[in-house]
Amino acid sequence: MPPETLTQTPGGGADPAEPERLDVLVIGAGLSGIGSAHYLQERCPGKTYAILEAREAIGGTWDLFRYPGIRSDSDMHTLGYRFRPWTAAKSIADGESILDYVRATAREAGIDTKVRFGHRVIKSSWSSEEARWTVTAERGDGTEVTISAAFIMNCSGYYRYDEGFTPEFPGLEDFAGSVIHPQHWPEEPEYEGKRVVVIGSGATAVTLVPAMAEDAAHVTMLQRSPSYIVSVPGEDPIAELLRKVLPARALYPIVRWKNVLIQSLTYRLARSRPRLVKKLVRKGVMNALPEGYDVDTHFKPKYDPWDQRLCMVPDGDLFKSLHSGKAEIVTDRIERFTPTGIKLESGKELEADVVVTATGLNLLFLGGMKIEVDGEEPDQSQMLTYRGMMLGDVPNLGFTIGYTNASWTLKADLVAEYLCRLLNHMDANGYDICVPHLTDPSVTPEPILDFSSGYVVRSVADLPKQGSKEPWKLRQNYAVDLRKLRYAPLEDGAMQFRRKVAAPQRLAV
Predict the structure, then answer these.
(1) For the domain 166-359, what is the CATH superfamily, name and number?
(2) Among 7, 4, 2, 47, which Cα is nearest to 23's?
(3) How confident is the model at residue 502, as a pLDDT?
(4) Sign of the C-alpha dihedral, residues 184, 190, 192, 194?
(5) What is the DSSP letter of 21?
(6) Is the pLDDT of residue 261 over 50?
(7) Selection from 302, 275, 298, 301 nearest residue 288 by Cα
(8) Helix (H) or strand (E) holding 209
(9) pLDDT in tens, 170-199
(10) Residue 55's CB: how many other CB atoms inside 10 A?
(11) What pTM did the predictor assign?
(12) Closest Cα partner for 154 from 387, 380, 396, 425?
């Protein structure tokens, strides 16, 4: 179906010949998109913008995932926005509270009025002659609409929203019970009083098990191999102490920086002294488990700490479920599904009425948006990322990818601030185009995510690369990025600025 091209004319009518023209188009109305819109309104108040959201609600990940117990995998003093303090007592917050926080941020700033729901961006075409993007979005009814934008902020994250990852399980069709993927949680799942098996060992699995154990007859976490699991306080004791004497605006940055430093030091210690961190994590697990529990089988990962993300359990809720007998962990491999459950390679069979496949996610860069630059479609998997937020030789396009070793929003805030600074610099100097370009031949490509988690390993070859040197290197370090993205000169030799060149006029014959 041909795309519809509508724009509002000054008189209020619609001109079907030209697409709507905006200064900035934000893609995605999740945590990153709402934050980017806030910075746009605050720091580039003269810019016109809109947000295109593929789904029908604000919230992104926190609206999509509805499984029991869903919560933040980072503390809310760093997962919250820099500009809007998190004031609730819970430091590890439930998904509904986070969703309320994001939506309140949008509503209070009037950002919610800028969101166009049911618009999935499928293609963006750049014209150097016009110095603009023509963006094509597909609406829920199957029609298409085009919008012209001078700059794109892609805040769609890197998870594929329409499907999660589920391995091929032999005999799955024989299973008489129900199978649920956490990414597609039903409105009213029936598991009360039933036997549940949760397949997986990551953050989703360790969240689901204690939450489902409250109502299920029994829950088994079936893992192929263990993950590092750390118990953390559900409420930050230092924040609660300071809350008694400081207002929220003063308290928030103190606790935020305290947690940033703890995250950074913990990560550095894990990478420099993995044996020590292994011992510390093991000691914490042993103290939390029932006496005599088989720690080596169920809680001794084969990799070093932070080769994959650590799983945090607030107030040790997973361990409490194991203590109560309402839940157990089985470490084994699946041979096949049976009509009544799962047969394991060890010969044991787990009886189940409900199986939850917490087996991971699929990645999708830029939300699957195709890019054309002056009529050519570059291979995104062969491109280098500039400062982890722009693509080499792709003009006027930024994207947000958060930290793997800290809270997503720490990086999202910095990206939004940097892109606003970039837009203002272009306006002040009369530039229409900014484009990162590699001039150093010694820079070599490296995987953009140095992580051994399954969802990364499965997809990293299809993602753009980072470079071996600055500014093409993706730093997983908030303090370093803070200095470089908030204060470093924009004209660094790699970022090139120019004015658009008007097309030559044809001579009359």
Answers:
(1) FAD/NAD(P)-binding domain (3.50.50.60)
(2) 47
(3) 60
(4) negative
(5) E
(6) yes
(7) 298
(8) helix 203-213
(9) 999 999 999 999 988 998 888 999 999 999
(10) 18
(11) 0.90
(12) 396
